[in-house]
Amino acid sequence: MEIYVILKQTFDTEEKIIIEDDNVSEDGVQYVINPYDEYAVEEAIQKREEVGGNVYVIAVGPERTSEALRTALAMGADEAVLISDERIGSDENIISKVLASYLSSQKVDLILGGYFSVDNGAGQVAIRLAQLLDIPHVGSITKLNINDDKATADRDAEGDLEQIEVILPAVFTAQQGLNELRYPSLPGIMKAKRKPLQQLTIDDLDIEESELTPKTARTALSLPPQKEAGQILKGETIEQVKVLVEKLRQDAKVL
Amino acid sequence: MSKTILVVAEHRGGALRQVTYEAIQAATLSSTENDQLHVAVIGHPLDSLTESLSSIGAEKIHLIDHPDLQQYNPEAYLAAVMQVIDASNPDGIILGHTAIGRDLAPMISAKIDAGQISDVTNIENIDDQVVFTRPIYAGKAFEKKVFQSSPWVVTIRPNNIPGADSSGGKAEIEHFEYAKPASLRTVIKDVVRNTSGKVDLSEAKIVVSGGRGVKSADGFKPLQELADVLGGAVGASRGACDADYCDYSLQIGQTGKVVTPEVYIACGISGAIQHVAGMSQSKVIVAINKDPEAPIFNIADYGIVGDLFEVVPLLTEEFQKVLG
Lengths: 255, 324
Ligand SMILES: Cc1cc2nc3c(=O)[nH]c(=O)nc-3n(C[C@H](O)[C@H](O)[C@H](O)COP(=O)(O)OP(=O)(O)OC[C@H]3O[C@@H](n4cnc5c(N)ncnc54)[C@H](O)[C@@H]3O)c2cc1C
Ligand SMILES: Cc1cc2nc3c(=O)[nH]c(=O)nc-3n(C[C@H](O)[C@H](O)[C@H](O)COP(=O)(O)OP(=O)(O)OC[C@H]3O[C@@H](n4cnc5c(N)ncnc54)[C@H](O)[C@@H]3O)c2cc1C
What we know:
The complex is a heterodimer. By secondary structure, chain A is an alpha/beta fold. Chain A has six helices and 15 strands. Chain B is α/β, with parallel strands linked by helices. Chain B folds into two domains: 4-175, Rossmann fold; 201-323, Rossmann fold, CATH 3.40.50.1220. Chain B is 25% helix and 29% strand. Chain B has eight helices and 18 strands. Chain B has helices at residues 18-29, 50-54, 74-88, 99-111, 221-230, 238-242, 273-277, 308-323; strands at residues 4-8, 11-12, 15-16, 36-43, 60-65, 92-96, 115-120, 122-126, 129-136, 141-147, 152-156, 172-175, 186-192, 206-210, 233-236, 263-267, 284-289, 302-305. Chain B has a seven-stranded parallel beta sheet with strand order 7-11-6-1-4-5-12, sandwiched between helices. A five-stranded parallel beta sheet of chain B has the order 15-14-16-17-18. In chain B, strands 8-9-10 form a three-stranded antiparallel beta sheet, with no helix packed on it. In chain B, α2 links the parallel β4 and β5 (60-65). Chains A and B meet through α3, α4, β9, β10 and β11 of A and α4, β7, β9, β10 and β13 of B. β14 (216-222) of chain A pairs antiparallel with β10 (141-147) of chain B, so a sheet runs across the interface. The structure holds flavin-adenine dinucleotide (2 copies). One flavin-adenine dinucleotide binds at residues 6-8, 34, 36-37, 59-62, 86, 88, 90-92, 95, 113-114, 116-117, 119-126 of chain A. One flavin-adenine dinucleotide (FAD) binds next to α6, α7, β17 and α8 of chain B.
């Protein structure tokens, strides 16, 4: 089974956001595999262990993204592809077209991605990709089973659980709870250094440059108003509770 | 020239969801005076909705009512919504950033080759340009975005744009015959409704949230009781989810849901940066924690230093008294 994971490199979730010259500052920032995509990598490896085949990790992004791909290789993925090119605009529409252009020339049985990225967080790329490849998808899954040419998945729909069967090839996006992550072992990290990591530009793909024009543009970036620490209530617990109820009824119309 | 904006409605239990009224308002905010507002309603059965729909302030309602559409199936819903899109040729399409909207919107966008702005919390008209605000880094920052082409697709985050009041006019209702796709590759085998009867977390006006301090699944009971008295929903930190005290679907934060209720009550939650990202835009934040140094107090409007198992039941009791 040929299993592809589409993954994005994101800021570590511990990072505070600093704006400099109308952009999010990348100074000294730690990068990680998008946490949801980590579950996708893990699931891909588990499925390969179950049914055999290969796991390919693929990312579109700047050069630094190769670190995230190496981490995925150290977790156990077999091969990596980085599509990196200044001409690729940063827009979900473009990223999905670039991925589709690459994947449509590969033999694909299964594609796994994340529910959304924890930085830009649009939640579009994986589902757009499924549509562009004209294959079904199941979003936000917490369980996946492969039965020959079909797969069944549990989808978390705002707390409701949907059990869905699709014909492969198909795209799945990982929700938390899909699996327990493994962390790269030292031998895994050593081995990863020798695994293939191919770097491509759009010249290697069958895609028109006109497809690479963003359909959306950012016009401003700002930090939310800083929340000020309020008051710690004092006195006997029951007094504090009474004061709190009073305050909440003043502040919030809904009570 | 007048344009058409299409809202894809959502309904649950025979009534329109609040986010649909918010989407209608979003459509008004993104249009100019002569624009037409259309609403697509997909599902089964839809009879109970026609009355609330006809006065929703739209020019036209497109209904596709078919037993095959009773449950959300991505392929079937895409086919149905494309029937409406082909017939009404909208310039803009607006959905809720909900379980269905998050799934369906990118399918539509890819299908009609549209740009999409997801998870919008505010819409304004600046120098004749419609500008959409959305959180990035789970609310650690905000960006404003515009479209550079048409058609466009937007999903709006529940609870942020005020809902339109259903007063306006009488809409024309058009019934579509569902053109079932020749072959569906997706089959919905079963749906387990864990949420029926409960207040939806992302739409809740009041959220009572528990962390590792809640100590067990049973420990969530007093929180649920408080939420019930307040008509709110229960949420959780990842600490509580990881410890198996509750389901991941309750998780609030950078890798969970982002919520913006009127009141957020954090019980036994330390206030890690990833958690705060998901709730700091709540209007009033209350923290109950036995550690006076817990970082959650830095962002709380009101804090009670104490044992949640003592404080929460007292709060429930006190609210019961004053709310009757
Ligand atoms: C030269 C270059 C520079 C870039 N710089 C940045 C940057 O500084 N900051 C930034 O946030 N983004 C950057 N990107 C990436 C791009 O902007 C985003 O990936 C894109 O907009 C996707 O949107 P999203 O993050 O909302 O993903 P979502 O739609 O939320 O992602 C859903 C899922 O799709 C998959 N996916 C998303 N993006 C990619 C990708 N790029 N490659 C493979 N799989 C993916 C993942 O599985 C992910 O979990 C850059 C891209 C390029 C080519
Ligand atoms: C990639 C990544 C993503 C993450 N995403 C999220 C996310 O989306 N959401 C999220 O919440 N976290 C997230 N986290 C985890 C986050 O870093 C914290 O570990 C987590 O939020 C801690 O949960 P907690 O506050 O419940 O637990 P703790 O930090 O253990 O805090 C428990 C608190 O309960 C208090 N307490 C204990 N007993 C009582 C009592 N009887 N009465 C009152 N107070 C009591 C304690 O004083 C303490 O402050 C993420 C982490 C990573 C690495």
